Amino acid sequence: MRLSRTGRPSRSRRIVLLATSATALAALVTPYTTATAAPTAPQERDRSSAPVHRGPVLDVQQTARAQVDECFKSIGGPRPQPQGGACPSGFQPKINGAYVWSAARSGDYAYFGTLSNITCNASSTYSSNTTPYVVKNADVCEFGKGANAGALGEIYGDARTPQVLRVNADTQKVEDLTPTSDPLLKRTVGLRGAAAHDDVVFLFGQTVNEGQTVGQGLSMFAFEGSTGKFLGSKAYTDLVSARGGVVAADGNLYLAGRAPGVNGGRVLRWTGDKENPFAFDVVAQLENDPGYLTTFKDRLVASGWGTQVPGERGAVSGGASKVWMSPPIPSTGLTFDGAAAWEPIFSWDEYDPDPMLSKGIAWGALTEWRGELYVGSYNQAAVGAVQTMWKAYGQPKGDVLRKRDMVSAARPTTVFRISDPGSQKQRTTLLYGEEKLPVYNPNTKRWTSKPNLLGQKPKFGPSGFNGNVGNAYAWTFTVFQDRLYMATFDSSGLITPGSHFTAVNNGLSQAAKKNLELVVGPSLKATLGGGDVWRMDDPAKPAVAETLNGFGNRSQQGVRVFLPFEDKGFLYAGMASSWNLRATAKDRGGWELNRLTPGAKRAPLDTRLPKDAREAAAGAGITGF
After folding, report:
1. pLDDT digits (tens, 9 = 90+) for 58-76
2. pLDDT digits (tens, 9 = 90+) for 217-265
């Protein structure tokens, strides 16, 4: 196909470049070339106290990063520990730590939980394929020959004990508080959620036993926030996943998590203390798995998820996902008597005209900002939509038709603003999305384009913020110094390490896999790779790109957690990377923890998707695009 040398590529052509990446990567066990600087824009000021600037405003300093913790030579072979950071001759350094997966603040301390080797866990959980593989200089998954196979079975042979880190926000000193002798931690696959209240910090993760899949239970670990003292742990069987907690207007801590079985979840109110930390009351039972939880004035709001059953390649059951709002919280706190008053205030199928794809999309991050609710979407594990459709209608044969479906089913990060949520005056505005969306006809087996069901044009831009379909997930939203920061999971830099998972999970040929690994992956990483953060200074104006390349590290697929320290003038960004064989100086793999301090006034980033992405692909030898 001839490459266009002028103008912005059409959306359909842009999607082709990213189609296979958007279905592949960083399943969340259940989202280069530095952007060209545009001319400096004058600083403006809106009606609020927050200044408006068209370019990045954050300075970035690294506080910690995942270390080389093993040396690799061959699958199932010896794993010597590095000595002084170096590996023996013939061995590669390996970084198992992939995500800063959770964060909570207690006083002057920040607590973080980690996750290891996410690409391996995703591949085995979603497709049940446990054939070991190596993607050269990118990623290795050993499964049944992995270090943890004897304890957890082949599915989680690549799991490693997660870390608990505490950072002094005044000195930036980092402590490792991991309770390594706790037997429950050894059966915990990552620490996905965290919360803090009354000098108690909780970190919780997903419990597995040998031969089982994720979702067997919830592990919870408690610490004294001011000292870091370990208070103990508890395993729950009435919850199997939880992602965070919030302190509401009534002064109580609330958590949300998925219940056992296929669908649904619960909201809990903490009733414990330091002496008895593991005490909770159920205050709501929801038909969706409640993912993210936030406050809106005197209420709670949860983003709903469908459930991806292990072994079904990421197909979702229980959709469509809804945004849920609690009744007003009384001063005595929510009780289960009020559970029936929780109401869905918006559902994905109120926007998406495809009745089957609507069941495969979840809600991601959400937050209140300036009296309105902002909520983003999540194409679950970047495979939820297409696999849900294929489960219902059947999967076509061959790479061409499968890639066609993957392209058309892509639903990049979509952002809505809900004004007066839960009231008769509620208004939902499409900020970033699509006026028309692809819809599949199972009778003709063809795709057509239909208007979104809101009948709206996006106010500020296309889905993915700038049309980057690699932005599959609104990963974390936070408000800091009266600005709204929105981070995405950007899969465009993960095509190479995710090539095996993409091919196996979606039934692509070995030729397609090699094309992803060796050609498409390097080309798109060089032009679009690295996680994005978008900032809104003024609700009436489009978001500004704070970074388009993982703050300068293209192997970082995004900010997984934000943790603001408003009173100290900075916020932490816990990053994520799945490149476990990339212990390099440039674009290093493994998680990073960065401290972000406002003060920079840099020129705006060019947010257009580069037309040279196609030229870079052609230069790397791609044909047929």
Report:
1. 999 999 999 999 999 999 9
2. 999 999 999 999 999 999 998 898 898 899 999 999 999 999 887 788 9
> What letter does residue 17 receive in the DSSP assignment?
H
Contact present, 546 and 534 (Cβ < 8 Å): yes
Bridge-based pairing state of the strands 109-116 and 164-168: antiparallel
- Residue 620 pLDDT grade (very low, low, confident, very high; cuts 50, 70, 90): very low
State which amino acid sits at residue 108.
Answer: D
The sheet with strand 230-236 has its strands ordered as 188-197, 200-207, 217-224, 230-236
595 three-class SS:
strand
Q: Is the pLDDT of residue 614 over 70?
A: no
- Categorise residue 220: left if φ over 0, alpha if ψ from -120 to 50, beta otherwise: beta
Lowest mean pLDDT among 272-281, 382-391, 454-463: 382-391
Please spell the DSSP secondary structure of 528-581, one letter per residue.
H-S--EEEES-TTS--EEEESSGGG-TT--EEEEEEEEGGGTEEEEEEE---TT
- Cβ-contact 342, 332 below 8 angstroms: no
| Residue pointed to by tokens 């958007």 | 22
* Residue 56 token pair: 């990045």
- Write the pLDDT tens digit of every residue in 160-171: 999 999 999 999
CA distances for 428 relative to 65, 188, 564, angstroms: 40, 39, 27
Q: What is the pLDDT of residues 535-569, one digit of tens each?
A: 999 999 999 999 999 999 999 999 999 999 999 99
3-state SS, residue 76: coil
CA angle in degrees (0–180, nearest 5) for 137-140-144: 165
Dihedral through CA 47, CA 48, CA 53, CA 54, nearest 10? -60
Looking only at Cα atoms, what is the longest distance across the chain? 69
Q: Find out whether 450 and 439 touch, Cβ atoms under 8 Å.
A: yes
Q: For 71, phi and psi rounded to 5 degrees?
A: -120, 135
pTM: 0.92
Share of the chain above pLDDT 90, in %: 76
d(CA 113, CA 101): 6
Ordered DSSP codes for 227-265? T--EEEEEEESS-SEEEEEEE-TTS-EEEEEEPSSSS-E
How far is 487 from 464, CA to CA, in rounded Å?
11
In terms of phi and psi (left: phi > 0; alpha: psi -120 to 50; beta: otherwise), the region of 445 is left
Q: Give dist(CA 140, CA 42) in Å, integer.
A: 47
Taking alpha carbons only, the member of 354, 324, 330, 329 closest to residue 342 is 324
Q: Which residues pair with 267 in a beta bridge?
A: 256, 284
